[in-house]
Amino acid sequence: MTRILHILDHSLPMHSGYTFRTRAILKAQQALGYEVRGITGLRHTAKGPATEEADGLTFERTAGEAHGPAGYREWREIGLFAQAIDQTVRAWQPDILHAHSPALCGQAALRVARRHGIPLVYEIRAFWEDAAVGNGTGSEGSLKYKLTRKLESHVVAKADAVVTICEGLRQDLIARGTPQDKITVMPNGVDLALFGTPPARDAALARGLGFESDGAPCPVIGFIGSFYDYEGLDVLIAAMPELIARQPGARLLLVGGGPMEAALRAQAEASPAASAIHFTGRVPHHEVERYYALCDIMAYPRKRSRLTDLVTPLKPLEAMAQGKLAAASDVGGHRELIRDGKTGVLFPPGDAAGCADALAALLGRRGEWDRLRRAGREHVEARHDWAVNAARYQDVYQMLSRIP
């Protein structure tokens, strides 16, 4: 049985889009008959044993700490991670190393792959220099940005095969000079086994949030996730007065938190539509479905940037899998997931009036909701179900098994 060692930034039991994609990949590969195991670097910050089982998956942890000035600290981090990977390779004897971005994981895996003569797959979920710009921890064109990009390009050049989550990332790599036949697109997806019958709407929760009018449910637009600037939630809040003017019963539900939370709350409090905007703060992961069940439309108003044009997010797919309507800004990452008017609606990025127009029109076309929901779910089943898409890894692994 082929053994695949996945080299990861962090993993379960931590919760993030990164860990959920990892879980889906490993579970799907187990179902295909592979033996899988993960190993995380120093950025897995949850406390736990050196070898940990989470949701039926085994993860090894890297011990130690990396200190020092920027650059040296990351190089030391790579060194400690490579040592831990090397120990796991000697003990577990994997057939293939499968590293996942960021490039720190890829570089650590590359050292071990070459030492032991094991094929290396490098999978890019986002360009982390662009993600740092998006979440406010970096700036485009800075020394850190350039060094991160250079390291990623090095790992891509040396890896035996490269996987990306979308066409936008693939085209960017080709423009950098990566051969087309070296890159496989593994679309972002969901584990449909986790999305059975959606939970019923919690009437008591809805009443507590003010989502009823004269005893009837209000139409609810929701966002559940992290509050980063690139998500465009300020645009969504700015759209609410015009939306309320056209659809007086509409409500906005914002679940989560992050760097923009204080600014967004202040913006909402100053809005003429303040009474229609509700923040819950962060909620436990097992509570998230209760809030999804309150929403009719899930809104994703991302602003245009390199990150949002190149990378497909996971959240719209989860929304469609749960039978929710998806409304999203017309950026490259969303266009790969949503066909306007077919599986959801798209509106101009950074445009509050355009956002309000799209949402008001969608709320006014209730007769089309069942068709859109059904089309969205069918799109996910056909193109973004991990149980189906994970089979593409077989082609990549079989190709690598023939490398002399």
From TrEMBL:
Residues 17-189 form the Glycosyltransferase subfamily 4-like N-terminal domain. InterPro entries: Glyco_trans_4-like_N (IPR028098), Glycosyltransferase_grp1 (IPR050194), PEP-CTERM/XrtA_GlycosylTrfase (IPR024004). It holds the Pfam family Glyco_trans_4_4. SUPFAM superfamilies: UDP-Glycosyltransferase/glycogen phosphorylase. It comes from Novosphingobium beihaiensis. This is Glycosyltransferase, exosortase A system-associated. CDD domains: GT4_WbuB-like.
